[in-house]
Task: inverse folding
């Protein structure tokens, strides 16, 4: 996929991943880049996240983004902080920009020192081009496929999103890296706040296993080279890209065979709708039921019941794959037909809480034996 | 195991469980019973829980407890409420007591009408004795073994606990039923509040899959036939029995092969210590790592980081099976030896947050392929 105007990207294999797969991605702006940033709330956040927060606070423009996969450089002490700074220095030196204009990111195993000398040795190999695909591949860990999404804006501007996900995916942020790149200027009027709102409704509504990771970030980056776009159109497009990437992350959750989409309407507020949707998408029991094509709506109702959203169980309605299965009480349905309908790439749960006007959506994936296998043997 | 003085119990197979296993348990007091009650906070609570809350509020004595397994009688509408009342009426009629003196409980699948006529037909078969074992077996669902615990009190009084657990186990309450029976009088001075505190530190610290069930209760019941016991001794014994049952429930979680115990010290408060312990015990990634004997402490640190407990990652300490693996940073350890040490029936994580004086404990189990298998095909 082609990058928006003003961006170049490339990648290489530095040897951090024992598999020898690409693990180092570089994204560069031809000119200073405007940006908005959202990152993990985990207290054990990695040096790259702490550094990113400082860069945001300092309000400077970005020139480059350097990402390694295969090692999260988290819980690696003072040495880890130094390694993260070194990453920024190396990219800055090579590109002839200030280190403070280089955002870093690391994803992978926690607690293992980052072999930054491998990055030093292989960074110069990176060939920059106007295609994002090599970068998209280099940021993956246990993902099985690259995650890209695109929206065209009026006047020829574009929004291109790239992300990685897989395990340890849960609000607020996960082992998730997401970058939305655009040549449209960021609209005036608190773009960081608007970006935070987009992230809350999309990336923060993805749950793979309930674990919030230490290294995650969602960054919106603009070269500003295209003509300005009306703010509402811009944010709609940004939300569409973020939503598409969020769905791709959920669908490619570790061991996942199916995407679970949960839409909640009629909640007392949008926030409660999101809470309720997330509880269903995150329920281990419902995730296992989806894996087994089992229309066990009791597990949906139970998850709604402990979600924290206010509603009356004897008033709410639940649809599964467009079939109403609960409406203030059990609704008779053809279990065999519905189980067959669940044998799809996407299982959709729609809930009407009948308690207000709030709506929200969340995405997850089924819980499989493969998830257990992947995560039972990761470091050893 | 023998019941405390003043109690009798028995069980039968009413045919609610298709397997034909015992599924109806009756517990009776020779005289009116004093009691304290804690139940699920799930909004979709079952009729038995709603009725139990009303009985508590009315402050009457208990004479009997009737429990069926195999069907939760939850989300079964007005018919379900009637079925629950009918259970109480049937027991009351047979025993010659008021229906308001009969506590009911149901556990099993949600949303299927309870065939109360089977209870009516088979209740009279129950043979009451001074042994609790048949009752303990009849309340099980996917549990693989009965859960009993006992403490002797000064002066000859006893505390006998019985519980069932398995899936859908998470604070606050789960597919969990727990009854603590004693012939000691409940100590004066807010026994219900004290019981709530015991439940918070024990049953509410068990997590199998993060799902809070609709039907759960932990009830302390006293015949008062023995001599009074000093309050502190009584509550210590009650906590010991509750803790033992909580551990048994976690160890027998669906598909579990190992008990995970997490002890947190040095938290800003006991509440934060419990939060932190629970986050680690509930982490799908850590549960899978325990299954694979993988000393992946990064997952422990990440779970502590998103738990909500306040601490500094560069100050805390983590021990696994008595080996320090993190102390403000990675501590070198023998991975092969530690992986071998994890091949035990119990894996113990001890954390010192070094942020205060709060302590707490939580229990969980490893995440296995078997958990997925059990829950992927439950109703169909």
Result:
């Amino acid at each position: 996929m082609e990058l928006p105007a003003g961006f170049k990207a490339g990648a290489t294999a530095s040897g951090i991943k024992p598999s020898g797969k690409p693990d180092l991605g570089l994204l560069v702006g031809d000119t200073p880049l405007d940006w908005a940033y959202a990152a993990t709330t985990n207290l054990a956040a990695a040096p790259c996240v702490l550094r990113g927060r400082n860069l945001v606070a300092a309000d400077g423009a970005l020139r480059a983004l350097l990402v390694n996969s295969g090692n999260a450089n988290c819980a690696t002490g003072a040495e880890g902080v130094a390694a993260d700074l070194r990453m920024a220095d190396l990219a800055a030196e090579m590109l002839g920009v200030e280190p403070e204009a280089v955002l870093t990111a690391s994803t992978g195993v926690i607690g293992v020192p980052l072999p930054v000398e491998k990055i030093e040795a292989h960074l110069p190999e990176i060939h920059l081009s106007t295609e994002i695909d090599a970068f998209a591949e280099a940021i993956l860990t246990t993902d099985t496929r690259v995650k890209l999404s695109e929206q065209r804006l009026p006047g020829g501007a574009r929004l291109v999103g790239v992300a990685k996900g897989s395990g340890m995916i849960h609000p607020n942020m996960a082992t998730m890296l997401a970058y939305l790149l655009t040549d449209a200027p960021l609209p005036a009027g608190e773009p960081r706040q608007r970006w935070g709102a987009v992230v809350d409704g999309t990336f923060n509504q993805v749950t793979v296993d309930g674990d919030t990771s230490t290294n995650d970030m969602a960054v919106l980056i603009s070269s500003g080279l295209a003509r300005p776009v009306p703010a509402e159109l811009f944010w709609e497009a940004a939300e569409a890209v973020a939503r598409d990437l969020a769905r791709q992350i959920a669908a490619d959750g570790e061991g996942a065979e199916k995407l679970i989409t949960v839409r909640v309407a009629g909640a007392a507020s949008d926030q409660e709708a999101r809470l309720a949707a997330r509880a269903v998408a995150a329920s281990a029991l419902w995730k296992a039921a989806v894996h087994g094509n089992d229309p066990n709506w009791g597990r949906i109702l139970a998850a709604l019941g402990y979600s924290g959203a206010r509603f009356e169980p004897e008033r709410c309605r639940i649809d599964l794959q467009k079939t109403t299965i609960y409406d203030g009480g059990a609704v008779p349905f053809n279990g065999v037909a519905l189980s067959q309908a669940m044998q799809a790439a996407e299982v959709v749960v729609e809930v009407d809480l009948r308690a207000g006007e709030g709506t929200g959506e969340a995405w997850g994936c089924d819980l499989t034996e493969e998830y257990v296998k992947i995560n039972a043997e990761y470091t050893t």
